[in-house]
Automatic annotation (TrEMBL):
<comment type="similarity">
    <text>Belongs to the class-III pyridoxal-phosphate-dependent aminotransferase family.</text>
</comment>
<dbReference type="GO" id="GO:0030170">
    <property type="term" value="F:pyridoxal phosphate binding"/>
</dbReference>
<keyword id="KW-0808">Transferase</keyword>
<keyword id="KW-0663">Pyridoxal phosphate</keyword>
<dbReference type="Pfam" id="PF00202">
    <property type="entry name" value="Aminotran_3"/>
</dbReference>
<protein>
    <submittedName>
        <fullName>Aspartate aminotransferase family protein</fullName>
    </submittedName>
</protein>
<keyword id="KW-0032">Aminotransferase</keyword>
<dbReference type="InterPro" id="IPR049704">
    <property type="entry name" value="Aminotrans_3_PPA_site"/>
</dbReference>
<dbReference type="InterPro" id="IPR005814">
    <property type="entry name" value="Aminotrans_3"/>
</dbReference>
<dbReference type="InterPro" id="IPR015422">
    <property type="entry name" value="PyrdxlP-dep_Trfase_small"/>
</dbReference>
<dbReference type="GO" id="GO:0008483">
    <property type="term" value="F:transaminase activity"/>
</dbReference>
<dbReference type="InterPro" id="IPR015424">
    <property type="entry name" value="PyrdxlP-dep_Trfase"/>
</dbReference>
<dbReference type="InterPro" id="IPR015421">
    <property type="entry name" value="PyrdxlP-dep_Trfase_major"/>
</dbReference>
<dbReference type="InterPro" id="IPR050103">
    <property type="entry name" value="Class-III_PLP-dep_AT"/>
</dbReference>
<dbReference type="GO" id="GO:0042802">
    <property type="term" value="F:identical protein binding"/>
</dbReference>
Length: 375
C-alpha cells in the first residue's frame, strides 16, 4: 500500500521540535513561523503540555461520552472564563470542519431552514456542509453541491441586506479574519450590521474562529475586536496545540436534547488534557497580550522592507503581500534560510502564523532572513 497522493510536499522531514525550533532527520534546525497551519499555539513540546498529556495517559487515554468526564466540565469552565464567553455551552468534537458541520446543523435545527450565507474567499472545511460553504469549487464535489449556499463579497452592505431579508436562510458563517482566503476582514461596521440583521431575521450567526481564535488575533476571539456576540462560535487548531480536537460554543439560548449531537472521539480524556494545558499556558504566560504586542512589532518591521506592498491581519495572524507570487520566496526561505512560512489563496501573500510565545528576537531573525532572500 502507498499513500493517497493529495499533498504537495517540501523535501523536509521534521523529527523533533521545541518552541518554534524544528529539527529534521539530517540535524538541520528550522524556525517555524507557520505553526502547522496555526495549530501550534503555545510552542512545540511545551513542558507543561507534555507533562499534562503524559500524566493523563498514565491514568486513562479514552472512554466514550456515555460516562461522566469531569475534564470536559473543567475545560468548559476555564474556556468560558478566559474567553469571556461564560454564557455559552461547549460541545467537543475532533476538527474545525466537524465543528462547522455541527454549527451549521444546529442553525438548521434552530430555524427550520437550510440555506446558508458565506463570503467570497472563505474557508470552513472540507466536509459536507462545511465545504459547500467554502469558496473553492475545486474541492466541492457534486454531493456537497446539494447544499444551498450564497457567497457574498465582504463589506457589501447592500448585497447582504438584499439576501438575508429573503426569509430563506438558517445561518451566516463568517471568519473575522479569513485564513486560507488571504487575511481579508469584515469591517467593524459590516460585522455589526451582519449581527443586527441576523437578529432581525432570525438567522443564526456563526463565528468561525477555527484559525483566528485562541488569542491569535490579540484577543481571545477575533470577533471580539468588533463588539458583537455570535450565536455560535467554532474552534479547533490552536485549541489542542497539535492534538486533534475541535469545539462548538453554543449560546445558552440553544436548548440541548439527548442525541441532538454526538461524537465517538470528541472530548476524550487526552484531548481534554491537551486543551487544559493550552489554556493554562495562554493564561499564565499572558500569550494573548504577547500576540497583540508582537503583531504591532511585526508590522513595524515590515514597513522597513520596500518590496512589501501591504500587511494584512491582526496579532500573530499576519500576511505580507507582494507584487509577485510568493511560491519561490517560500522555497528560498525554507531551503536557504530554514524558515517555515505559509501561503494563501492569494498567491502574492506570505502567511505568518507562529506560536503565540515567540519573541521580538525571533521576529528580527525572520526579517533578516526575508531581506536576504529578497536581494
Amino acid at each position: 500500500m502507498k499513500l493517497f497522493d493529495v499533498y504537495p510536499l517540501y523535501d523536509v522531514t521534521p523529527v523533533s521540535a521545541k518552541g518554534i525550533e524544528v529539527w529534521d532527520d539530517k540535524g538541520q534546525k528550522y524556525l517555524d513561523f507557520y505553526g502547522g497551519h496555526a495549530v501550534i499555539s503555545i510552542g512545540h513540546t511545551h513542558p507543561h503540555y507534555v507533562a499534562k498529556i503524559k500524566d493523563q495517559l498514565d491514568k486513562m487515554a479514552f472512554y466514550s461520552n456515555s460516562v461522566q468526564n469531569p475534564l470536559q466540565e473543567e475545560l468548559a469552565e476555564k474556556l468560558g472564563k478566559l474567553s469571556d464567553c461564560t454564557d455559552y455551552d461547549l460541545f467537543m468534537c475532533n476538527s474545525g470542519a466537524e465543528a462547522n458541520e455541527n454549527a451549521l446543523k444546529m442553525a438548521s435545527f434552530h430555524t427550520g431552514k437550510a440555506k446558508v450565507i458565506s463570503f467570497k474567499n472563505s474557508f470552513h472545511g472540507r466536509t459536507s456542509a462545511a465545504v459547500a460553504a467554502t469558496d473553492n469549487p475545486s474541492i466541492n464535489a457534486p454531493i456537497n453541491q446539494q447544499q444551498e449556499v450564497t457567497f457574498l463579497p465582504l463589506n457589501d452592505f447592500e448585497a447582504f441586506e438584499k439576501v438575508i431579508t429573503s426569509d430563506a436562510y438558517c445561518a451566516v458563517i463568517l471568519e473575522a479574519i479569513q485564513g486560507v482566503g488571504g487575511l481579508d476582514e469584515p469591517s467593524t461596521e459590516f460585522y455589526q450590521f451582519i449581527a443586527k440583521k441576523c437578529k432581525e431575521n432570525n438567522v443564526v450567526l456563526i463565528a468561525d474562529e477555527v484559525q483566528s481564535g485562541y488569542g491569535r488575533s490579540g484577543k481571545f476571539f477575533a470577533f471580539q475586536h468588533h463588539n458583537i456576540q455570535p450565536d455560535i462560535i467554532t474552534i479547533a487548531k490552536g485549541m489542542g496545540n497539535g492534538f486533534p480536537v475541535g469545539g462548538v460554543l453554543l449560546h445558552e439560548t440553544f436548548k440541548p436534547s439527548y442525541g441532538l449531537l454526538g461524537t465517538t472521539f470528541g472530548g476524550n480524556h487526552l484531548a481534554c488534557a491537551a486543551c487544559l494545558a493550552v489554556l493554562d499556558v495562554v493564561d499564565n504566560e499572558n500569550l494573548i497580550a504577547n500576540a497583540a504586542s508582537l503583531g504591532s512589532y511585526f508590522k513595524e518591521k515590515a514597513v522597513e522592507i520596500p518590496q512589501i506592498k501591504n500587511v494584512k491581519g491582526r496579532g500573530l495572524m499576519i500576511g505580507l503581500e507582494f507584487d509577485f507570487e510568493v511560491a519561490d520566496l517560500r522555497k528560498k526561505l525554507i531551503y536557504d534560510e530554514h524558515i517555515f512560512t505559509g501561503s494563501a489563496k492569494n498567491k502574492k501573500l506570505l502567511r505568518f502564523l507562529p506560536a503565540l510565545n515567540i519573541t521580538k528576537e525571533h521576529i528580527d531573525l525572520f526579517f533578516e532572513a526575508l531581506k536576504t532572500v529578497l536581494k
